[in-house]
Amino acid sequence: TNCQDVQNHQRSGQGDATCAPHPVAQPTTDIPHDDMGCCSSSESSDSEEDASPKQYSWDTRAKIDPKDYEIKGLRSTQVTRASGTVNGLPLAISDCQDCDVYIMDHSATVTVDNCTGCTFFFGPIKGSIFIRTTNSSRFIIACQQFRTRDCTDVDVCLLSGTLPIIESTHNITFGCFRGSYFGLSAQLAKAELSPFNNNWNQIHDFTPEQGGNYTFTNTIPAWVEPFFERRGEDLKKLPIDTSVENATVPITVLAGVGSDENVDEHHLIVLFKATVVKKFLQALYRAAALKPGNVMAITRVREVKLSDSDSRAVFSGEANKAFVDECKRSAAIGISVQGCGCAALIHAAAAGLGDSVVYLSVDSPTGAAEISTWGQITQVTTS
Q1: Among 115, 114, 141, residue whose Cα is nearest residue 127
Q2: Chain centroid offset of residue 341 CA
Q3: Could you tell me the pTM of the whole model?
């Protein structure tokens, strides 16, 4: 092709404007492109491939082996779970014989099946404990709901947030929870249990053969102290206190059980802080120890957030308006006390509380009426 031909070709509207050979097609290369169509180097592509994959919270969470939360088929041995080892998860215990089991941590739920001759301690349980086909065994339990079925010859020291339920159960004895240790208060909070709401002596019995299936005790059972003494050396580093004056869960008694003392006084004390309650109870027990001739028993403790109408029902009259106002800010913790000569003990204990808000019944007849009203307002169910 000569230049004249090219020029003629241009004038006809076709071809290039220069006298040059046609371009030669270049070989294609595998150049990667990003999503926007731009070229990127193979080096950046390699770095992307080498980048670590994303991690999520469920990827980094510790793996749970269900076997770590099962205690099964043991004989004549000791089992321990220290604080932080259960950490709010469920536990299942079955087919054990003549064992000591110490669960010093909070859990979600617990089942105990087909055990014989065992003794158990369970730290706070957020939900229920269900004990089935278990015989000749002893328990110390803090839980929201307590249930048994097909059990015989069982002793229980109990903190239960709802009314305990037994079914097809015979010869079971109930008493108040025993055993305080460092960390118990925090575990109760994690399990959403109040140490002041204990229904250990309000049993619902669904056993077909009614009558005589359960009894109560107001004293610490003889087996409790030896059970704590049998703990292994590691657990013994954590002292356990069974005294009434240092109890994290107040030791309450069932009126009329195990005592022939004449009761002629009834008093309601209402406080508004847990720390103040503990201080008051310690002072009350110290005062009682100094005056052994005076008889004093705590029959009930209850923590509740009162409505305005309920607070006015308990704290009637203009003179008690300050207590009605305090109920708007805080939960009320009511303590029912009965005995002989206990008014002096109560006032001595309250005197050491400084400027804390404290309500005391003005006299025994008033106290009896207030305790009745308080009981009706704060009654609980089995649920």
Answers
A1: 141
A2: 37
A3: 0.81
